[in-house]
Amino acid sequence: MRDLAPMARFGGLVASDLRDVTADLSALDSTGFWAVAADFEGRTVCARFGDVRRDPAPSTPRTRPWRGPDPAAWTSSLDRPAYVAGVRAIRERIAAGEVYQVNLCRVLTAPLPEAESRGGYGGPDIDALSAVLARGNPAPYAGTIRLPAHGVEIATASPELFLRRDGATVESGPIKGTARTADELLPKDHAENVMIVDLVRNDLGQVCATGSVTVPALCAIEPHPGLVHLVSTVRGELRPDAGWPELFAAAFPPGSVTGAPKSSALRVLGELETAPRGPYCGGIGWVDADRRTGELAVGIRTFWIDRTGPGAPLLRFGTGAGITWGSDPEGEWAETELKAARLLAVASGVQETSGGMLR
Questions:
Q1: What does the domain layout of the chain look like in residue ranges?
Q2: Known catalytic residue: 332?
Q3: What is the CATH class of 7-348?
Q4: pLDDT digit string, tens, across residues 49-80
């Protein structure tokens, strides 16, 4: 929408005064402060902003209020029977030796209220949703990118680090293993985490100095609103000839949301998933090229506005689960419900229910 000025918001910083937009990742090694939105399918938007300032109260109400979708209006790209069948199909691929783990996802969609011709509501503003998420579901890698003219309106409450860079040091924080409480984590969760850590070590090893890739933390339990995760840390030192383009070529899409081996997992996902993931499971964050620093989240717990079709704009959100040989198909569906329920409730403006939001 034309009246929504381009902006980005990350970690207490708000960026405005849009200067450049490019798909060229080498720009992130040039100068300036950049917001980065990389879709799972590979579309990348890098936006350089001229004004970056502190915003000490990111959860305060915006000028334009957020009006979420009807909580009963959410639909899923894979319903329960289709998702359960997908889990079974992946287990067959594992038994055949084609893959070890695959992260099966589904995209949820609901129409947003139309803009009112009078009164205080002027249509959906993704930054207003970010304020609601900051109050209802705070997250370590929360962020907003609003570039309506470029088809990018994203609000993420991501708990997962994709890539952090400080000079030559790079770090990733893959999440694998989710439950309501630490006591409910299963041996399957730990095994899954170790598999993905090995994959991420291999990814970073392609662009890091030989022998520099380490795992400072393995399967640490990390609490988040409504659930817990197993989180590991993988760290390395970039080779002198490697920058952001090389990092993306080695590590994207994130291993925690694809599977192992990554190429085989992507092939299976292309056969089983029925909707593009878009920003979900991509990379969302910021890069300060002048300081050679940056922080990109894995685009989970992420909403985006889709205005491409006729009628009311759509709000989309993704959820998924990592499938291994030890997976219970109904249990994996329940995990996707657990991950989605709180966020959909917050975005729809209703209280979370113990049974989830989808039927």
A1: 7-348
A2: no
A3: alpha beta
A4: 999 999 865 555 556 789 999 999 999 999 99
